[in-house]
Amino acid sequence: MTPKEAIRLAINGRTDIGQVRDENEDHIGWYNHPSLPMGFVVIADGMGGYTGGSKASQIAVKCVTEHLETLPTSTFQACTPDQQLLVIHSKILDALNAANAGILDAKVSAPQLANMGSTIVLALVWQDKVTIAHLGDSRAYLWNKDGLCQLTSDHSLVQEMIDSGSLTVTQARSSRVRNHITRALGVTEFIEPNINTYALIQNSLLMLCSDGLTEYLDHGELEFVLSTHRPALECCYRFISEANEMGGKDNISVGIIEYTLENKVSVSQANISVPAPSSAPVEDVTVRKESRA
């Protein structure tokens, strides 16, 4: 296990309205613990038209942030690593279910917002591991010296078509149904987020984004910026600038966690491995839990 003092986290994020939309329906939140190797980024991309999308994503980020900031209690810190991992997964599920319930409640009290909902993606770093959770087509990536790896697989119609072999990745970028998502917050009483944990065994960048970025930049272009642009946290601004220059048809949000091992130490994986860099999404395990009223 890597000593706590050997890990340094730096976090930054930005959201932008883009060049076409009248309102920014994205929200972003992040947190970096002042003394522990713990931090997170969460991005929500709202849907449901004017006002509704913004409201849904705001509720989502607020609920998740409030839940996750309270994670590193003294009881949590006294747990074994395996127990801590179970607590992290449970905390994330509670946060997502609270966000889902919050959006559903808001729709009941304001019928004009009946069609609102939100995608969500989050990355939570604790010690030498990162836990990723998502619903929808907002994404998480890992970049290190071995290359760029997409850690999430979109919950969308075009991703299902890609997986079935009926559509190529290139064709998906111009498909008329590319914005049709199959999972989101605030749509159904029950949610099915994907949650996975990976070991961080070397200096890495974790990048989260809404589809306003991946609409324009493909895997290779994302990797080029992350591998060449420094300071690393300023990649947020570079990505948004490039997406806007290429049209900025949607809101654009980007968050980055810079994970640095400051000492030359051996890091054990504890039976959790980082997936090999690839342009294809990694396989992950679906977790189902009932929403709380």
Summarize the structure.
The protein is built from eight helices and ten strands.
Features:
30% helix, single chain, disordered N terminus, 10 strands, alpha+beta, 8 helices, five-stranded antiparallel β-sheet, Phosphatase 2c, domain 1, 293 residues
Task: Explain what the structure shows.
It is a single chain. This protein is 30% helix and 26% strand. The protein has 293 residues and is α+β, with helices and mostly antiparallel strands. It has a single domain, classed as Phosphatase 2c, domain 1 (4-Layer Sandwich), CATH 3.60.40.10. The strands form two sheets. A five-stranded antiparallel beta sheet has the order 1-10-9-6-7. The protein has a five-stranded antiparallel beta sheet with strand order 2-3-4-5-8, covered by helices on one side. The longest helix has 29 residues, at 81-109. The chain is globular and about 50 Å long. The protein starts with 6 loop residues before the first strand and ends in a 32-residue tail after the last strand. Mean pLDDT is 87; it is low at 1-5, 265-274 and 276-293.
Strand content: 25-35%
- The ordered H/E elements are EEEHHHEEEEHHEEHHHE
Overall average pLDDT = 87
Strand order of the largest sheet: 1-10-9-6-7
The overall strand count is 10
Question: How does the overall form come out from the CA principal axes?
Answer: globular
Identify the CATH homologous superfamily: PPM-type phosphatase domain
Approximate helicity band: 25-40%
Structural class by SSE content: alpha+beta
**Poorly predicted residue ranges:** 1-5, 265-274, 276-293
Q: Architecture, according to CATH?
A: 4-Layer Sandwich
From the N-terminal CA to the C-terminal CA, the straight-line distance is 39 Å
**Which fold does the CATH topology refer to?**
Phosphatase 2c, domain 1
Q: What is the rounded Rg?
A: 18 Å
**Number of separate structural domains:** 1
